[in-house]
């Protein structure tokens, strides 16, 4: 859904759950992902789909080498954030614009990330409600679009002249999903 920002923002990186059409290098899944897994004992990596298959039949995934429990590389509450998260925090002071969509901005470190861009950098919040620093410490260049998020994003895409590209992308992704169901 987010390929529409790419033409304008070549250094774009997305911080959030996997989004259709976004290459892995441009995405930081701060809460980890089910795409990969690691043995909690010997730290061997495994493909996420192997773990998933075990879990779906109510079995605890075990490492074939050391029999340790294999855990998906998702971040549970209280665990440290993935390395990749820390690696890309440097994006923020260099950003020219910050788009924030669909969040409560209540959970750290995300709440603070919204303040990690320079004060001259425009921040766009597309959200149902006014949240976080946008409510209690607004900046003069903040732009806020509240209400239905799908409509807001469609409007932004329209203003950018990317409606056709977005529709193509959504069609492609829908076809992929339908193919997977069969
Ligand atoms: Zn192991």
Automatic annotation (TrEMBL):
Binding site for Zn(2+): 39, 42, 63, 66
PROSITE patterns to which the protein is assigned, alphabetical: SIRTUIN
Keywords per UniProt: Metal-binding, NAD, Signal, Transferase, Zinc
Molecular functions per Gene Ontology: histone deacetylase activity, NAD-dependent; metal ion binding; NAD+ binding
Active-site feature positions: 31 (proton acceptor)
UniProt keyword Zinc present: yes
Protein name: NAD-dependent protein deacetylase sirtuin-3, mitochondrial isoform X3
Organism per entry: Panthera pardus (Leopard)
Gene: SIRT3
């Amino acid at each position: 859904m987010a390929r529409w920002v790419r033409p304008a923002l070549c250094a774009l990186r997305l911080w959030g759950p996997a989004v259709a059409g976004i290459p892995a290098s441009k995405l930081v899944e701060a809460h980890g992902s089910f795409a990969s897994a690691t043995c909690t004992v010997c730290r061997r990596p495994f493909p996420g789909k192997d773990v998933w298959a075990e879990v779906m039949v109510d079995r605890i995934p075990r490492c074939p080498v050391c029999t340790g429990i294999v855990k998906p590389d998702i971040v549970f509450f209280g665990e440290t954030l993935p390395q990749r998260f820390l690696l890309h925090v440097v994006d923020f002071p260099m950003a020219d614009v910050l788009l924030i969509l669909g969040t409560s901005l209540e959970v750290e470190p995300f709440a603070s990330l919204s303040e990690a861009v320079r004060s001259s950098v425009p921040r766009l919040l597309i959200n149902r409600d006014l949240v976080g620093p946008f409510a209690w410490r607004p900046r003069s260049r903040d732009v806020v679009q509240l209400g239905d998020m799908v409509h807001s994003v469609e409007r932004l895409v329209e203003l950018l002249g990317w409606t056709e590209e977005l529709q193509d992308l959504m069609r492609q992704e829908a076809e992929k999903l339908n193919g997977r169901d069969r």
